Amino acid sequence: MIDPSSADNSICWMRKEEFDQLRSKDDWRDRFAVWANWNSNGEFVTYTVPPGKPLKVWEGETASQVLKDREGNLIKADDKGNHFWTAGGGKQIVLDPDDLDKAHLGKRQPTEWGYDSFGEGLDLVGVPTLTNNWYEKK
User: Fold this and answer.
1) What is the H or E stretch that residue 12 is in?
2) Per-residue pLDDT tens over the stretch 45-91
3) Residue 89: CA atoms inside 13 Å, Cβ hemisphere, count?
4) Domain for residue 118, yes or no?
5) Can you tell me whether residue 18 is helix, strand or coil?
C-alpha cells in the first residue's frame, strides 16, 4: 500500500492473501501498524517474483506501534493516560529493495479507500495518482 509520493520498490510488502483480507484503510493501518503521517495510502502496486529467481526476505507478524512525537515522547490519546496505538499482527514481508527487478513490477492501482485519512477531503488537483515511482540510487 502506497501513497502517490511513495517509492514502488519499498522494503515493506505483503502477500496477495493478506491484501485480499483487508476490508478498509483503518483495517490496513491497524493490522500493519502504519500511521497516517507515514503513508496516506490510496494506491497499491504488485510485484511478481520471477520463476527461478527467489527473493531473500524476512516474513513475520507486524509489531504493534505506539504513536510518539519527534522527540520520542508517547502521545496521549486522552486525559486518562491512554495512548494512540495500532495492534499489528498482519503478516508482513521485509526485503532489500535492491533485490527487486523493475521488469516484474505491476502498474499502480487504486485501493478505492481514497487518499485522505480522517475525512479531511484532500484536494487532489495535480497529484500524480497511479503513476509508478521506482526509486533509483543517485
Assistant:
1) strand 12-13
2) 999 999 999 999 999 999 998 888 889 887 777 787 777 878 899 99
3) 9
4) no
5) helix
